Amino acid sequence: MTEAWKLWEGQVVNGEFRLHQFVGGSEHSAVFLTEYGEPKPQKAAIKLIPAGQVSATRQLSQWDLATKLSHPHLTRLFRTGRCQLGGTEFLFVVMEYAAENLSQVLPQRPLTSAEVRELLGPALDALAYLHGQGLAHGHLKPANIMAAEDQLKLSSDRLCRIGESAADMETAGPYDPPEKARGAISSPAGDVWSLGMILAEALTQRLPVWESTGEEDPAMPEMLSAPFSEIVRNSLRRDPQFRWKVAEMAARLRQTLTAPQQPAAGGHKKSKQRFLVPAVVAGLALAALLGVSRLLHSGRENQGSAPAMDQTTPQTEPATQSASDQQAASIGTPQPPNPPLSETGAKINAERPEGEIVHQVLPDVSASARATITGKVKVKVKVQVDAAGNVTKTEFVSPGPSKYFARLAMQAAQGWKFSPSPVAAQDASRKWVLRFEFGRSGTRVFPARVAR
């Protein structure tokens, strides 16, 4: 069937969306690369379903529901409709393109506990949002846990209302709950079961064993460790009434995140390298999938950056700024670095008279906003400093992907204070670039003095 779908490459849907490379499909659907948006079209994916294989009205209604959703960990749907190709009627949906998915990783290796934590948080957040909107995912499996724009995202092209019959859906697969085989309606409990199966496989590369016609709960893999053994066990209760809800899974995960974490043997940096190498071997940017794609650039250091300030606990290795970041900023050559700054923002010249930064302000990020972050949100602000050391002008070098975090970074930059310029200086004004990095565990700032 793959070869048959490939014959459609080059066709144009409704005179608007050209079918570029065929990227995957089955007997029931096909996905191609296309382009979407104006004035500069962006890469997108377009899915085609023969109209005769589904209830067209119901499918378009489901897609219409998904286009109205807005969550950082759900793929976006842009356009839906009907089209004719080669005399056959299709339904189509144009959606956000995701280059990688979890199903490409698991055949190569299991995930580490740290990686599963990074995966589970966003997945639970997205499911909680869907269930709060009266929707169920209904099709959770590794192929539908994807990476798009350095964010982990769940697919959203097969969502349905809670309580909706699964009549139009394919037969039950290995990740579907037992009740689906009996024609049961879609539910949050079904999503919980599917996520439990995925977690077990992600950690062990094996699915739990269970009898579809029996009454016993699945047998838990022996290699599961806390807290995942508990989360998986309570997700895979055969009776949906006894399964944990998403909120209970999230609460159990938070308990482990707030507990002190012991560094891996050999140091933090070595641990990152162990994670990166298998991902490269797999031919997949798993770092992006799990929100830590910045590791791919950790080798490109800039010698002119000042050490980072941090809202979190002290770091075990020096923070660096990549050379590519400096080039993108187009702001000149940084000057020699300043010494580390205090986390509190108090004056530090008494301890370090050579330092130029005497007061720093860190953005005040709400807990709910920080919980939506996967990886790092970066914002660069250039500040102009007068002879007295006050910030007189601010402008974005790079506002990043979020207006919310950009606004917080700008407000914080305006409150910084620098040491006065020498009286003998011909031009007492100076310029700095403050690179803010927002993460789930805290906010770091990398200040760099720049030449004129």
Describe the structure.
By secondary structure, the protein is an alpha+beta fold. The chain has 3 domains: 2-96, Phosphorylase Kinase, domain 1 (2-Layer Sandwich); 100-258, Transferase(Phosphotransferase) domain 1 (Transferase(Phosphotransferase), domain 1); 300-450, TonB (TolA/TonB C-terminal domain), CATH 3.30.2420.10. It has helices spanning 2-6, 56-67, 113-132, 188-204, 228-235, 246-258, 268-281, 286-289, 323-329, 367-370, 403-413, and strands at 12-13, 17-18, 22-25, 30-36, 42-50, 77-85, 88-96, 100-101, 135-136, 145-148, 151-154, 160-161, 309-310, 357-359, 377-385, 391-398, 417-418, 430-439, 442-450. The strands form 6 sheets. A 5-stranded antiparallel β-sheet has the order 3-4-5-7-6. The protein has a 5-stranded antiparallel β-sheet with strand order 13-19-18-15-16, with helices on one face. It is globular, with a radius of gyration of 25 Å. Residues 261-354 have low confidence and may be disordered.
Write the layout of secondary structure elements.
Elements (H helix, E strand, L loop, with lengths): L1 H5 L5 E2 L3 E2 L3 E4 L4 E7 L5 E9 L5 H12 L9 E9 L2 E9 L3 E2 L11 H20 L2 E2 L8 E4 L2 E4 L5 E2 L26 H17 L23 H8 L10 H13 L9 H14 L4 H4 L19 E2 L12 H7 L27 E3 L7 H4 L6 E9 L5 E8 L4 H11 L3 E2 L11 E10 L2 E9 L2
Antiparallel strand pairs: 1-2, 3-4, 4-5, 5-7, 6-7, 8-10, 9-12, 10-11, 13-19, 14-17, 15-16, 15-18, 18-19
